[in-house]
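Notes from hallway chat w/ T.B., transcribed later so I don't forget. T.B. wanted the structure written out for a chain they're using in a teaching module, and asked if we could keep both sequence and structure tokens in one place. Agreed to drop them here.
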Amino acid sequence: MQWHKLGRIFEPRGQASWIVSHAAVPIPFHLGADRFRIYFSSRNQQNQAQFGYIEIDLTDPTRQLAYAKKPALEIGDLGTFDDSGVIGDWIVPRNGQLLLYYTGWNRAVTVPFRNAIGLAISSDGGETFVRSSAGPILDRSVHDPCFVSNSCVLAEDGRSRMWYISGLRWETGDHGPKHYYHLKYAESDDGTNWQRQGTISIDFKDESEYAISRPCVVRDDDLYRMWYSYRGQSYRIGYAESDDGISWQRKDDLVGIDVSSSGWDSEMIEYPYVFDHNGRRYLLYNGNGYGQTGIGLAVLEK
């Protein structure tokens, strides 16, 4: 693989009250022709992440056609699992509706945060999303002792398959608690109630890694491909392959994209989303500062 960068398609600069900083974890949604809605999570003045979108045309992707004046999903009620922030993970169309799997944020005491996975549903084409419940559909458990987040969900053969972040532990570091998390796998018959057995999808390759995030799984015929973020000193995008979506082989050296020599994505690249349109394969990603500098787009060279 070799990806050709098309440039930064969005830089958060206070375009709305919910877009004060960051445009993290992009999700594409096809509106028709070459027009796409790109969802992402941005932070407001209180540093709370909320979920909204911009719209672009892939033939001229660096020009924004529209943006949400208010969030499509705001933070949850006081005391709930997402009262400190929401970050969109994945959108699944089903029966004329859109299912949004998202990460909810809670502030914690002994560690900075705790995450869980929620579900929200849109019946108006993705303009707004309503929570399916006040509580999460996936939370920490015997298999995921600290937190869960960043899910990727595919519907296959009458079941739903999920790849997600599993928080393993926190350790005391020089700059406060340090988290360790990798990717695990779950299945569901209805997309809401999930069965977990602790199956690891992508693990650390050595002791230098401590964070693996944002899985994006694409099925090409009988081969599953996964793009994800992995972090030692700073985030890079990784790549893996699988015959069944359960057992994966890391092939990070084949990913075909890295940081730029200078500019908005010169320090890190992360949170990939790979999608196809009109016979071409595209990659959305974030750059420096975990989405602080915006969203980039690349296309796979033929």
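Follow-up for T.B.: The radius of gyration is 18 Å. Might be a good example for the class.
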